Amino acid sequence: MGFGKGNHLHLVDGSAYIFRAYHALPPLTRKSDGLPIGAVAGFCNMLWSQLSANRTKDGPTHIAVVFDYSSKTFRDAIYDQYKANRPEPPEELRPQFPLTREATRAFNVACLEMENYEADDIIATLARQATEAGGDVTIISSDKDLMQLVGNGVDMYDAMKSKRIGVEEVEEKFGVGPERVVDVQALAGDSVDNVPGAPGIGIKTAALLINEYGDLETLLARAEEIKQPKRRAALVENAELIRISKRLVTLDDHVPLTWSLDEFEVKEPEPETVLGFLGQMEFRTLSKRVADSLKVEAPAIPDAPVSAAAAEAAAEVPQAPFDHAAYEHVRDAEALNRWIALIRERGHVAVDTETTSLDEMRAELVGISLSVEPGQACYIPVGHRQGGGDLFGSSELVGGQMALDDVLSALKPVLEDDAILKIGQNMKYDWKIFARHGINVAPIDDTMLMSYAMHSGLHNHGMDLLSERYLDHRPIEIKTLLGTGKSQITFDQVAVDDAVKYAAEDADITLRLWQRFKPNLHRAQVTTVYETLERPLVPVLARMEMAGILVDGQVLSRMSNAFAQKMAGLEAEIQDLAGEPFNVGSPKQLGEILFDRMGVEGGKKGKTGAYATGADVLEDITTLEDVAPQAARLASSVLDWRQLSKLKSTYTDALQTHVNPETGRVHTSYSIAGANTGRLASTDPNLQNIPVRTEEGRRIREAFVAGPGMRLVSLDYSQIELRILAHVADIPELKQAFRDGIDIHALTASEMFSVPLEEMTPEVRRRAKAINFGVIYGISGFGLARNLRIPRAEAQGFIDRYFERFPGIKTYMDATVAFAKDHGFVQTLFGRKIHTPEINAKGPHAGFARRAAINAPIQGAAADIIRRAMIRMPAAIDGLPATMLLQVHDELLFEVDEGAVDSLIAAAREVMEGAARPAAHLDVPLVVDAGQGANWAEAH
Questions:
Q1: DSSP label of 319
Q2: How far is the CA of 902 from the CAs of 359, 732, 793, 910, in angstroms?
């Protein structure tokens, strides 16, 4: 009997389950191999709870779990910025995605996903089919995007809150019924999914407008009637974006599914299958619950083998409980002196600062916390104010605080004492705060960097995560003190009593993490990595960041104006080529011009009828032989317009806001533990991604200038990753070519294409260069075909020939992947470990994990080499009138007195070219190119 009246279908939003489980539960790893499984555990528990409830007489007759197939769907063709702001999933969550699919099937539940569609679209389609067949539907989710489906036999259930969501709950949330939810969402937009909406209009205003005018189209048609000028302008000027937004948020309930509703009938799990999976995951408690429910015996799950090091670590003495009431509020010199005596007695102290901002160059010091023993911590407030102050900072300090100068004077001898170790979590931040007050903190330890050395690739290294994972303690959340959004305050406005608990806890946690991590460095065999590549880099980077780089705001302003004028000229040219005016920034209008009016063939429409006009589509149009020249020129001009638009908004406009008013310089911040491979990441602003492949992009570097009487000097490793590849893969031809100074790309082209070096053409060399660099990053035949604009078969032929000519590279790749599968990590020449938890995954993530494992030792070794150079550099250039300012991938940038340029280049080059020694002896020389000029563009 088919699905129909009397049947009840439960549709579980699987992707939402995963993320909610991940964020709601503390981290968990499988003991046998360290695989992250916290989200899988939460998912399995939620799914089993759902299935248990299903077994009641009121439970559903049918059930399915629906997942997102990937991040790319038909909506990307509608709006190429859709979900562009979404961060990549956390590293430790990625290997858990395929496991949740396995879990679903193990519980004998239908597991659904479909390419080009989101889970929400599949749910919408199944809900429509089920209600049309006469059945009822419950969607197990709290996702607001699914609320448009509620009503007419469909409701929702928030399993985390045990709360039903019906029509009334939807109206309470959106101010309109389910049938008008998409209209409200189209107006309000969604910053998470990057749905543009109408600027300045939120949910409440959107609901007010829709209720007044009835629906979105009527509202847009009558927008000129709206009295409020800003609201009227937002609707009139953004009508097309609002319509695009509606298409983005409207779920497609006619997905061409291949499943029938009958396939989702509720079935009992097969005991052997489900218990086998749970045993594989080492879920003892859930295995017992499931086995009891199925009336079978729970299989024994053996304890994972424990290494001697792990057993030693597990035998550590349990820590004292966290007791916020025991933390001390230091109010006077007597109490502070008592703490200083304790610090001198112990010989170490965990220290943390509280400030008004994350920008260390502008932040004001609000308080300092100290800890010398687990559970024994204090907070010294120095800058808490009542009322928060006004624009002139006239608010008064609250009572119970010491004077800032008195506190710093008392602590300075301790913080600078070589006999006392200062311990921090992300110590670079605190180092800079103290340095701005004349204190040079040394020596230091950093728990964030200890975790990074031991656990790179397994998880991030923020204090909250480390505390939950390694101390089983969830710290006080900062948002409980500061609030969020427009009402958010700064830390100087937090009540002192609350600040004591929060700040002292930070120092307490840091000390406990240090006690746990420090002895485990040698057990993990990464002591050398931490002591030679991580810890010594902290003061080097801190000084670079404080030095900053001088930026000429007038140059940026002129560039912004020039870009704006050039964009206007391109717009006129584009509209002239089109034969009519249109919004160049509208993908929909552009698609209609190209494919409908100009007759370009091959246009692909999404479900909403809009053509895809992404960069890849436009680039294809510019190169296809059968495209009319006018259309090719239009596509090319749009690409140029988009590039200028990005340069203007991301760089020439935005960089001006990052200039520190006191120094006139831009002070970027480097994340030491941001990338798994050891590469540094630059933020606020990101100076590592300034484009250099186009003339306009290169010109942005002209705004970075040297001070009066100074020059900027750039030193850049030449092809360092290819040199490391030649060494680690032991390729005789490539190693000899690097020794002889031969053009490596020309040599590769000669070897592969049988072209003598003296007859080499730029095009053949370009192809070889693309293959050389592509191989390092595990490029596929498809990727190389797109890069070179050649047929895929021809590109794959190039790659196959490359491996035939240089078989050592394929041998290296296979050996590296095998090592990763056996050990769960790969390693650089300098001992850095990069864990590879996804290496045994199956499905779409398998290829990514394999490529990452192959590339990590090469990219990681290059990162280690430039770190070693940076750490040695201050001593090498001591005495020269020069300052190291920036690190950008394989390049170091200095500011130096005009008369000392040659001396600086000679000293810095010697350090950089010898940076691998003595830890590693490379079979190829490291070569450093140098340049100098009045600005960065001239120097590089």
A1: P
A2: 35, 35, 50, 12
Neighbours of 200 (CB within 10 A): 12
Q: Max CA-CA distance within the chain?
A: 91
Question: What are residue 373's DSSP bridge partners?
Answer: 376
- Between 510 and 793, whose confidence is greater? 510
Structure tokens that stand for 305 in this block: 């083998």
Q: Which of 249, 301, 251 is nearest to 275 (CA)?
A: 301
| CA angle (584, 587, 592) in 5-degree steps | 90
pLDDT in tens, 67-112: 988 767 788 778 777 776 666 677 778 788 889 999 999 999 999 9
Domain spans in the chain, listed from the N-terminal domain onward: 8-264, 271-305, 324-515, 550-665, 675-731+819-940
**Inter-residue contact 103 to 277 (CB < 8 Å):** yes
Distance CA 23, CA 41 (A): 12
Query: Cis link prior to 374 (omega < 30° from 0)?
Result: no
Are 453 and 536 in contact by the 8 Å Cβ rule? The answer is no
Angle at 809 between CA 807 and CA 812, to 5 degrees: 115
pLDDT at 140: 92
Cα–Cα distance, 559 to 700 (Å, whole number):
8
Q: Among 316, 286, 317, which residue's Cα sits nearest to residue 301?
A: 286
Q: Which of 890, 542, 874, 511 is nearest to 714 (CA)?
A: 890
CATH class of the region 8-264: alpha beta
pTM of the model: 0.66
Domain 675-731+819-940 has CATH 3.30.70.370: yes
* Neighbour count for residue 846 (Cβ, 10 Å): 14
Which CATH number does the domain 550-665 belong to among 3.20.20.70, 3.40.250.10, 1.10.3720.10, 1.20.1060.10?
1.20.1060.10
Residue 258: other Cβ atoms inside 10 A: 8
